[in-house]
Amino acid sequence: MRNIAIFASGAGSNFDAIVQAVERGDLEANISLLICDRVGAPVIEKAQRHDIDTVVFTPKVYENKAAYEAALVEDCRSRNIDYIVLAGYMRLLGPTLLKPYQNRIVNIHPSLLPAFPGKDAIGQALDKKVKVTGVTVHFVDDGMDTGPIIDQEAIRIKEDDTEEDVKQKIQAVEHRLYPEVIQSLLVKEESK
d(Cα 148, Cα 139) in Å, to the nearest integer? Predict the structure, then answer.
């Protein structure tokens, strides 16, 4: 069974979805580690409730981004991490982390990339008055939501939808799609 590390910065709704998929047997993986970059983030308590090892790395205490990422890589390697899953991790990754885990770091984004990359994708979609947005799962590269797309799913925005309505539609898709995509990647990896 593959070991995955989840990197998160916030509330952890996608973290919850991944954990639940593992518990149901829909995702055949061992969640070996949660790495969080924010002291006190709600996702930390969620990981502790599931007895998932948690490490909080505060980037400010490191000399630079490369030193911070080297510490992340060291921790992941010490736990034999096969894949890194970003679930609301709000940092761009650099070469120190990307190189050893090339094509083994995935992210989920609340838009149909390449539309609306970066922060507040739902707000961006509403500002542009688009009728369709969605969810993208992609490999991570050194850009802002620019890595190769693995899968996408669209949702319709109705005229009277509020931002909260759209957020709920997006999260419903994310919480189903992300574990499915991770599982398909792990199955492909096993068949190599």
Answer: 5
Choosing from 50, 109, 138, 175, which is the catalytic residue? 109
Please indicate if the annotation marks 91 as binding a ligand.
yes
Q: How many CA atoms lie within 13 A of 122 on its CB side?
A: 16
Instruction: Extract the tokens encoding 8.
Output: 């998160």
From the list 33, 26, 21, 30, the residue with the least C-alpha distance to 3 is 30
Residue pLDDT, tens place only, 34-73: 999 999 999 999 999 999 999 999 899 999 999 999 999 9
CA dist., res. 14 & res. 179, Å (int): 9
User: Domain 2-191 - what CATH class?
Assistant: alpha beta
Judge whether 93 is annotated as a binding position: yes
Q: Residue 96, Cα to own-chain centre: how many angstroms? A: 18
Q: Active site includes 109?
A: yes
